[in-house]
Amino acid sequence: MAVQISPSILSADFARLADEAAAVPNADWLHVDVMDNHFVPNLTLGLPVVEALLKATSLPIDCHLMITDPDRWAPPYAEAGAGSVTIHAEASSAPVRTLREIRSLGSRAGLALNPATAVEPYEDLIGEIDMLLLMTVEPGFGGQKFLDMVLPKIRRARALIERRGGEVWLQVDGGVSTETIERCAEAGADVFVAGNAVYGAGDRVAAVDALRSLASGAA
Ligand code: DX5
Ligand code: ZN
Predict the structure, then answer these.
(1) Per the residue annotation, which of 28, 33, 62, 190 is the catalytic one?
(2) Per residue in 15-42, pLDDT tens?
(3) Are 183 and 164 contacting, i.e. CB atoms less than 8 angstroms apart?
(4) Catalytic residue flag (residue 209)
(5) What is the pTM assigned to this prediction?
C-alpha cells in the first residue's frame, strides 16, 4: 500500500491559493473542501475556484464535496479536470449513477462517510468507487480533534476492500496529524488528508514529509 498525502487548502490562506498549492510540491494531491452551508454549517468555495486552481497547480486536485444534491453538482468538477471527486453517501440519492458519471468523465470516484455512518451498507458500492473516504471528524471545519471511535470502522473498511481485491484507496480526513496518522495507517488507511497539520506548520514541505514517513512506518 503506497502512502499518499493530500494537504487540505481549507487551512491555507484563501487570498493566496496558488502560492499555497506551490508550497506543497512533495504532496500527492491537493485536497479541496467544497462546502455549501447546507450539508455542513460552513461555506467555502465552488467550481470557479476549482477551475482557477486547476490552472494554477500541477498537483492533481482531490475534490471533497460536502454539499447537498451531489448528483446534480458533482459531475462538473470531473468535467473541469479534478483528478478525484468525492461525494457524501448521506447526501446522494443516486450514488451509483453519480459515481459512474464521475468515472466516465475521467476522474477517480470517491464515496465519503461521516463518523456515524456505517460502512457495511455500502459494501456493494465498492466496485463503483476508486476511493472510500472515512471522516475522522464531523465534516465542516478544519482543526477539529481526531475521533478515535472511527478506527474500528477503518479496520472493517480495509478488510472489506481486501475481500474485493484491494484496488480501492482508503482515505481519512479530519484531525490527521503527527499524533494520529500512525493509528490511521495501522488500521489500514493509505490516503491522508491534513489541513492544520500541513498549513498550520511553518515548513509545509517538512510537514508533508513527516506525515508520510510516520504513515509509511506504521502501515
Ligand atoms: C473538514 C474537511 C477537512 C479539513 C481537515 O470537514 O473535510 O478536509 O480540512 O482539516 P484538519 O486536518 O485540520 O482536521
Ligand atoms: Zn475534506
Answers:
(1) 33
(2) 999 999 999 999 999 999 999 999 999 9
(3) no
(4) no
(5) 0.98
